[in-house]
Every structure is written in C-alpha cells, then in structure tokens.
Design goal:
Chain A: GO terms for molecular function: lyase activity. The complex is a heterodimer. Chain A is α/β, with parallel strands linked by helices. Chain A is built from 3 helices and 12 strands; from the N terminus they run ββββββββαβαβαββ. Chain A has one domain: Glucose Oxidase, domain 1 (3-Layer(bba) Sandwich), CATH 3.50.30. Chain A has helices at about 75-80, 95-105, 120; strands at about 5-10, 15, 20-25, 30-35, 40, 45, 60-65, 65-70, 90, 110, 125-130, 135-140. Chain B has helices at about 5-10, 20-35, 55-75, 110-125, 150-160, 170-180, 210-225, 240-250, 270-275, 285-295, 320-330, 345-355, 355-360, 375, 390-400, 410-420, and strands at about 40, 45, 90, 125, 150, 180-185, 200, 205, 230, 285, 310, 340-345, 365-370, 385-390, 405, 430. The chains are: A alpha/beta, B alpha/beta.
C-alpha cells in the first residue's frame, strides 16, 4: 500500500490481533481506563476529566497511548464486543497485559510497538486502514501544509 | 512465537478436553501478543467469575454458567463443559452478599444470580474468598512464586510486599490459568523487570494509616506505571498501611511493583532494589507535597453535610474494623448518615466474635461483606457527599457515582458518621530532621 494514491503516511508496528479494516480514527492523547473509564452499553468514555469524555468509540479506529486503571480493563472492552459497541480496531503505543488481553478479547485488529508514535501522527477523523496481518497502519488523505 | 513444553502442546491439542484446549489457545494468543518467550507454571489464581454484569447475565440466560465461562473467561464461543479448576483458584470481590438485601439500590435478581454462580463455581473448585485482599484471608503466595492475579491493589501487594510474581491479569487470562496452571512468563515474572526505576526520598516519617495513603497517592502520580523505591525514615508499616499505600499508588498511577529497602523482600538494601543500575536522582516528598496530595483528594468536596461514610477499600483488616468499633463505642450515627465497613466474610466472622460488629451495628453502622460500592455502583439512596479513609475510594467513587468526596483519617470519618458533618483537617507532618 505504501505510496498508493491518497496515502499520506504508513506507520509500521507489530500486529497482535490479526485482521484488516478501514475506518475513521478516534485519537486519545491520554491513557484510557476500562472499569470506571468506559460504559460498555453505549461504547462511550465516561471518565469525567478525560479529553474524550462523552465520546463514543463504536466503529472507530481507537488510537491511544495505552491502558490504565483496574485489571477489569479487558473485561470491559470484551463487554463492548458482546454488546455491539466495540471499536473497529485498536492502535496503541504502550504494550501492557491489560491492553494486550483487552484487544484479544475485543477481537478487533490491533497494532502496537510502532517505530513512530501513532498518537502524535494520527488525528481524529483521519481515514485509516489497520492492516494487523502485516503490522501496518495506513493513513489516507492530503498531507497537511505543516509538519505534524 | 511462545515456546511450548510437550505438556502444554498436549493441553493445546485437546488431551484434557475442549475447555483446556480453548484456554491454551487464549494463553498462546496472549503470550504472542506480549512477546513472551514461554509460559510460567502457576498454582495460584485469583480471578472473577461470579460477579453479574449485563453481558454475563445475557450469556447465562442463553447457555448457563458454562456459556458464560466459555465466552468471558476463555474467549471461546463453543459449547463446552467447565472442568474442575486445575490449580487453586479464588474468587475476588463481587456484588453484595445476602447481607445487602433490601438496604441499598442493588438488584435482588443480581444477588440471586450471584448466589447461583457461587454454587456453580464452588462445585468446580473455586475458593469463594470473595475479597480484593485474598492475602488477608489465607491466600498467601510464597516468595518468588509465579501467580496469576487480577485486582490492581492485590497485584501490587503480592509483587511488592509478598515477593510473589504476577502481572495485572484479566478475566480471560485468569480463567484460562485456572484450568491449565499456566500464564505468560512476561513482565513482572522476570527478575530483570522487577528492579526499581525511580527513587523517592521522603523527608517525612509516616505517622499512620492516612500518611501511607497520602504517600502512595503521591508516588503513583509521580511515577505512573513505573517501579518506585521509597527511602527515608519512614517508620514501620503494618499490613493495613502497605495495603493502603499500594492501592493508592495503583489508583493515581498504575504501580504494580515497589520497593521499600529493608521492609519489602526483593530489596533488603537500596542497592538490591536497583540491581546493577545506579539509583536515579531522587524525587522529594515533603510537607508541601503531602499537603498538595491531601488538597487534591479533598478537592471534590463542597458540602460539609456527609450522608455516607465508607471504610475498607481495599477490604478492611481486623485492626481497622477494631478501630472503627472503638471509635463508635457508646455513640450513635447521625440520622441522615450511613456508615459501611467493607470486609471479607471470613474477617467478619472474627469481628462478630470479638463483639466489634455488634458495637458498630448498635451505633447504626453496618459491616458488609464481599464487595464495595465501586464494584456494585451502589451507595445508600440519595447519597450526595461521602467520606472515606481510603485514597483509592476517594479517587474512584466520585467518578463512578457522581458524588462528592472527603478524605480523612478513620477517626475523622467515624466522627462525620456520628455528627453528619465533615470536620477533618490535615494533622501536621512528622518532619525528619
């Protein structure tokens, strides 16, 4: 896909849950809590001081630095799958047991361990393809006029 | 790819049945995601099976507890039979027990469901300790033992105070560990990952339970998920102090492991805490830092009318229950204020025997077992303002229940329950000269 028409950027990492999907990015610059941080029934962030408070991640490519808080993290994201509110894919920076297990039981394509920080390089609303089979995140759209 | 032993390959290939094969499949996917080279053998699992959630209830209604276990605890969609737990496995805290029936907005249906789940899982060999502090009621792993535990405050206690080795596990990894006796050998299981990363130098002596909570909240905020090493003339902590310290550090940050040289077993000395690396420049904890943490934990309270007081997060120790009982002798709670002391059922039995439960109940308070308001998302009806001696609960409950919080000493909290008013203030620090 590198260099294909419309491709702005290709981020290389390691796929940890296989699969390939395309959609819009939702970027969190802050880590995300599972228990006390998300509401599985609606797929929204409920932590009051969080930058994405009240925002729904269902069907979005969730781009975030990593997981924080309770070990219930994986169970809460698993619940989003069971209730039909899961993100479309996960793209995260910091690999921990919570985030790794959470991605597996959410069963969405997931890439981590990037050469470049995806949180800094991807913006909310960007059209992205997550190719977890090859450990790639492809960002589409025109290059912005200033360096990101 | 994770390397498997012949025994593990046989489990993966179905020798021990479909559930064990599914569990091995999950553990292999998980180990590969982490980049673990192999699996650890474990004989100590602390997880959660019996707590009803909307998703679990739906699965139970579709296919009973076997279905719920397959999907939630093994990430498997097949119809399987749940085997007996292969290794000792305990249930962590869950929804309120029978003692909560009728006294709070907690669904009777969920209490029934949970009792049903308890019978099912205990028949499969799960030890229903029903507590966030398994180490207070007999589950004490030995030094260096590989274990698979959930619950952030239990994980930090096991790693740091007991010297056992665990990562912060989840529902599916503990479910899979319980019927295979395996968990990815990664992170805190490896000695090289257990050395300190940050040095925290305290200029204050810890004068008791509240001080350890404030210090823990400061440390977690300062180091986030790293491994702090605390030095200074700290005094001798007891079980409740370190339980509170670790829980606070795991709430404000994500600390899974810490060292206090001379006090915690992986670090007889400062040098041992850091291994071959030289200690980094210290972060200072002094009067100003202590005050700032106290103010931050108390920044969510406006109204001084307290309608709910909560003691015991993580679950109260016997010593803590005794302290509450002593502070309540011959007093009566304010009419508009509830007091709950949360503890495991096993410790409640001792509290009953010691007469403490009766003292607390005579005053109008309750000793409740097996869970906490944050897990059940339930406080007494109409609660607007609560007070607690737990930094962890002061951190979480305002977000979860949308209520105001006061953080103080155990005695200040009891006083608020009796008067209905918050009158707490920070006592002067013990500065080490």
């Amino acid at each position: 896909m590198t260099g294909a028409a419309g491709t702005r950027l290709v981020l290389r990492g390691r796929g940890i849950v296989p699969g390939r999907v395309a959609g819009r990015a939702l970027v969190s610059h802050e880590t995300i809590s599972g228990w006390g941080g998300i509401e599985p029934a609606s797929g929204t962030i409920i932590e009051r001081r969080h930058e994405l408070y009240g925002i729904c991640f269902t069907g979005k490519v969730l781009v975030f630095p990593g997981a924080k808080g309770s070990s219930g993290w994986s169970g809460f994201f698993q619940s989003t799958r069971l209730m039909g509110t899961a993100p479309l894919a996960m793209v995260f920076t910091n690999l921990t047991t919570k985030a790794a297990l959470g991605a597996i039981v959410t069963r969405v394509p997931t890439v981590t361990e990037f050469e470049d920080d995806p949180v800094a390089k991807i913006a909310t609303g960007d059209r992205v393809e997550v190719d977890a089979d090859n450990g790639l995140v492809i960002v589409y759209g025109p290059r912005p006029g200033h360096p990101r | 790819m994770v390397a498997l032993t012949d025994e593990e390959k046989a489990m993966r290939d179905g020798r021990d049945g479909d559930a064990v094969a599914a569990a091995m499949d999950l553990l292999i996917r998980y180990a590969d995601a982490l980049g673990a080279a192999h699996l650890c053998e474990t004989r100590n699992v602390a997880g959660t099976n019996t707590q009803p959630s909307p998703a679990k209830t739906k699965l139970f209604e579709e296919g009973g507890w076997s279905k719920a276990f397959a999907v939630i605890s093994l990430d498997c969609d097949d119809d399987i039979e749940v085997p007996r737990m292969k290794v000792p496995t305990c249930q962590l805290q869950h929804g309120f027990g029978d003692d909560a029936l009728g006294i709070m907005p907690y669904s009777e249906r969920n209490i029934e469901l949970q009792a049903d789940a308890e019978s099912f899982y205990s028949s499969k060999g799960v030890n229903v300790l029903a507590t966030c502090t398994p180490y207070q009621v007999g589950n004490l792993p030995t030094y260096g033992e590989h274990i698979a535990w959930m619950e952030s405050s239990a994980v930090v206690y096991a790693n740091s105070v007991l010297g056992a080795r665990t990562n912060c596990e989840g529902g599916a990894s503990t479910g899979s560990a319980s019927i295979t006796g395996r968990i990815p050998c990664w992170g805190n299981h490896l000695v090289e990952n257990r050395y300190g990363s940050h040095l925290i130098e305290s200029g204050l002596r810890m004068t008791g339970f509240q001080d350890w909570g404030l210090f823990g909240y400061f440390v977690g905020d300062a180091v986030q998920e790293a491994r702090p090493v605390m030095v200074g003339d700290l005094g001798q902590p007891d079980l409740a102090d370190l339980k509170h310290f670790g829980a606070a550090a795991a709430s404000s940050g994500g600390v899974e492991m810490y060292h206090i040289p001379g006090r915690t077993p992986d670090a007889p000395t400062l040098e041992a805490a850091f291994g071959r690396a030289a200690p980094p420049g210290p972060l200072h904890y002094g009067e100003a830092e202590r005050r700032a943490i106290y103010d931050s934990l108390n920044s969510i309270g406006n109204s001084e009318d307290v309608d709910f007081v909560l003691i015991g997060c993580p679950h109260a120790s016997l010593e803590q229950i005794g302290r509450v009982a002593r502070a309540l002798e011959d007093r009566t709670l304010s009419a508009g204020t509830e007091l709950w002391v949360m503890t495991p059922r096993a410790l409640r039995a001792v509290s009953d025997r010691n007469g403490w439960t009766a003292t607390i109940e005579r005053a109008g308070g309750r000793v409740l077992t097996d869970s906490c308001p944050a897990m059940s998302r339930a406080a007494p009806t109409g609660t607007k303002v609560f007070a607690t001696d737990s930094a962890k609960q002061a951190h979480y409950l305002p977000a979860i229940l949308g209520i105001e919080a006061w953080f103080g000493t155990t005695e200040e909290c009891v006083d608020a329950a009796v008067t209905g008013r918050w009158r707490g203030s920070l006592a002067p620090a013990a500065v080490v000269r």
